[in-house]
Amino acid sequence: MRPRARPVVTLRPADVIGSGLCVGCGSCVALAPEGTAGMAMDDYGELHPAGTKDWREHPSARLARTCPSSPTAANETEIARDAFSQAQHEDAHVGRYIGAFVGHAAEPGWREAGSSGGMASWVAAELLRRGLVDAVAHVKPVQDPQGEGRFFRYGISREVGELASGSKSRYYPVDMAEVLRTIRDVPGRYAVVGIPCFVKAVQLLRRDDPVLRER
Questions:
Q1: Which residue numbers delimit the 4Fe-4S ferredoxin-type domain (predicted)?
Q2: Which of 33, 93, 129, 180 is the most buried (most CB within 10 A)?
Q3: What is the model's pTM?
Q4: Which residues of the chain fall short of a pLDDT of 50?
């Protein structure tokens, strides 16, 4: 007897939005056909996907695999075991890790400009300096807040000097839809700085898309 094929699990954008579990990362919008979806601010000042009825109501197996709020997508434990298979330790509370340390950026300027010791910005700078990545996706101030109707957004930095504008934590609604499209369309190696649920979205997309996995 042949083993029974597993049913294909699908998910609609409307399911995630209606459940109140959407984290506003924008990964579903990045995957949407051009002109069918975008990110919009709701009455609570939170960003959520908005689009045509066909897009909102369309059952998608890919969305079920890549949305960080999908109940059938790989969870953080599965992602970590694949991404950090070399890690020697695993803890039920913190996950997989090689070592745990306390520190700050020693190079002048980074610690003072950062929120938590300046480590994230300094590591991003080192990745660029050493040629390990070609660009860094991170939250930056916009050039024209009044014109754009917002103060911060995700952007791409390709030079160390550009990173300073993105230092410090930004407690402000942002999404990754635009930069994810850029990463998908423009060849190169990218580092992405983000909160855990956004980084989970990036890792799920990398598991599903060979181009994003390579970049």
A1: 13-42
A2: 180
A3: 0.92
A4: 1, 3
